[in-house]
C-alpha cells in the first residue's frame, strides 16, 4: 500500500483577513481531498491488477468448470426427474439456458461479481486517478489567482504541469468520448490522427484512435489535436504530486498545532 505523509506546519493560516483565510483554506482542503483520492485510486488500481495476475496464475478455466460441475449435474438430475427423460431431451436447449441462469444466480448470491463488472474495475480506478489529479491541477490553478498568495505557488503549478503534460488532454478525451469515439474534437471537427509507435500500436502513417487503452499501468488516449497522450498510474507520479502539495502548504504562514495526514 502506498501512503504519502503530508505535514501541515500549523492548524490555521496566519493572516489578518478572515475572508482570505476562509478562501485559501477551502482551496487547501480541496487539494487535500483530490490528492487523497488519487492515492486511494492508485492503491485500488494496483490491488486489482495484482488480483487479476494471481487469478490468472492460480486458476484455469478447466478448474472453474470442475468446481461448477456438481451443481450443474444436480440441476440437470432434478429437472430430469421432474419432467421425464423424453421431455428433458426434447426441451434440452431451453433447459440448458435455465441451468445457465441458475448457475449465474448462485454465483451472484455467493458474492461473486459478474465478469463484465469485474473487468471494468481497472478502468474505473485508472479514470478515478486521472480525474483526481486533474481536479488537483485545477484547484492549484485557481490558487495562483488569489491575492497575497506566495510566489512559490506559480512555481509548483509549473512543476506539476511539466510532470503531467498530457493530463488535461487525457481527462478531456475521457470525459468527451461522444466526440473522440467519432474522431472529432470538441467543435465537431475531424481529428487528424498523428503517427504513433508506443509499444502497443505501430502506426507510422497515423490514423489510429486510442480510447482508454491500458498497457500495464499506462493509460493512453488520443487527444483533441490528434496526438496521443499517456499517463502512468504510478507511485512516482503521485510522489511528484505529494512534493507539489507539500511545497504549497509550506509556502503559507501557519499558527497553531502542526498536523500530519493521513491520520
Concise structural overview:
This protein has helices spanning 18-58, 61-83, 85-90, 92-109, 115-118, 121-143, 152-163, 167-175, 177-180, 235-251, and strands at 6-8, 12-13, 196-197, 202-203, 213-215, 218-222, 228-232, 254-255, 259-261. By secondary structure, the chain is mainly alpha-helical.
What is the strand tally? 9
Q: C-alpha Rg, in Å?
A: 26 Å
Ends distance:
15 Å
Instruction: Give the ordered list of helices and strands.
Output: EEHHHHHHHHHEEEEEHEE
Average pLDDT, rounded to a whole number, is 91
Describe this structure in words.
With 263 residues, the chain is mainly alpha-helical. The chain has 10 helices and 9 strands. The strands form 4 sheets. A 3-stranded antiparallel sheet has the order 5-6-7, covered by helices on one side. The protein starts with 5 loop residues before the first strand and ends with a strand. 18% of the residues are buried. The model has no long low-confidence stretch (mean pLDDT 91).
List descriptors.
mainly alpha; two-stranded antiparallel sheet; 60% helix; 263 residues; three-stranded antiparallel β-sheet
Amino acid at each position: 500500500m502506498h501512503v504519502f505523509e503530508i505535514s501541515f506546519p500549523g492548524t490555521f493560516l496566519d493572516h489578518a483577513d478572515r475572508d482570505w483565510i476562509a478562501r485559501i483554506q477551502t482551496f487547501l482542503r480541496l487539494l487535500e481531498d483530490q490528492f487523497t483520492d488519487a492515492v486511494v485510486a492508485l492503491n485500488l488500481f494496483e490491488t486489482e491488477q495484482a488480483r487479476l495476475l494471481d487469478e490468472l496464475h492460480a486458476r484455469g478455466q478447466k478448474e472453474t468448470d470442475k468446481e461448477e460441475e456438481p451443481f450443474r449435474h444436480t440441476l440437470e438430475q432434478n429437472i430430469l426427474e421432474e419432467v421425464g427423460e423424453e421431455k428433458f431431451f426434447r426441451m434440452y436447449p431451453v433447459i440448458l439456458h435455465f441451468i445457465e441462469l441458475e448457475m449465474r444466480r448462485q454465483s451472484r448470491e455467493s458474492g461473486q461479481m459478474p465478469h463484465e463488472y469485474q473487468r471494468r474495475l481497472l478502468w474505473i480506478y485508472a479514470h478515478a486517478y486521472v480525474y483526481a489529479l486533474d481536479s488537483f491541477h485545477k484547484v492549484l490553478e485557481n490558487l495562483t489567482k488569489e491575492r497575497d498568495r506566495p510566489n512559490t505557488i506559480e512555481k509548483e503549478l509549473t512543476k506539476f504541469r511539466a510532470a503531467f503534460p498530457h493530463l488535461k488532454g487525457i481527462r478531456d478525451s475521457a470525459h468527451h468520448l461522444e466526440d473522440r469515439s467519432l474522431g472529432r474534437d470538441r467543435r465537431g471537427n475531424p481529428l487528424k490522427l498523428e503517427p504513433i509507435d508506443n509499444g502497443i500500436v505501430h502506426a507510422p502513417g497515423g490514423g489510429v484512435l486510442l480510447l482508454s487503452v491500458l498497457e500495464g499501468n499506462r493509460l493512453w488516449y488520443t487527444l483533441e489535436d490528434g496526438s496521443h497522450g499517456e499517463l502512468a498510474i504510478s507511485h512516482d507520479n503521485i510522489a511528484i504530486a505529494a512534493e507539489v502539495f507539500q511545497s504549497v502548504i509550506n509556502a503559507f504562514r501557519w499558527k497553531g498545532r502542526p498536523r500530519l495526514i493521513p491520520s
